[in-house]
Amino acid sequence: MGKRHPNHRRVKIHRSYTVEDIAVLYSIHKNTVRNWLKSGLPAIDTKRPLLVSGCDLIDFLQQRKEKRKLQCGPGEFYCFKCRVPRMPAENMADYSSDTQKVGNLIGICPVCTTIMNRRVSLEKIGSVCGNLDITFPISIRHIVKRTKPTVNSDLR
Asked: CB pairs under 8 A, 24+ apart, for 100-108?
């Protein structure tokens, strides 16, 4: 029915919202908004209907979003299945380059064995990797650039 992560940009700053208005705005139940009020969303006053300032609603939603964020430390990747930052299995990762400067570190979660990725630039790879053993794969040369032709080609 509703959204797990409401977008604070849908709220107008200079407007006051009732509980029903917020519920309709985010397609959530009114009890969810009432729970937000109990957990720290400030109301303008205690009179009915309860009104919430747009600025306060934006601040509340941004603070909720910031509380959920987990920073990955050096050598940690975020595992989407476990939902926590973890060191890859056996402290090993592979680097896969997308461009000359940026690529992905790829590791395996030691708990659930899913593939974990971390985007990294080559300039900052030393500070991001921590004590990981990183493998840089040798790029495969193009067939035209090979010195010896393959057996399957006819190059007369």
From this structure: 105/77, 105/129, 105/132, 105/134, 107/77, 107/132
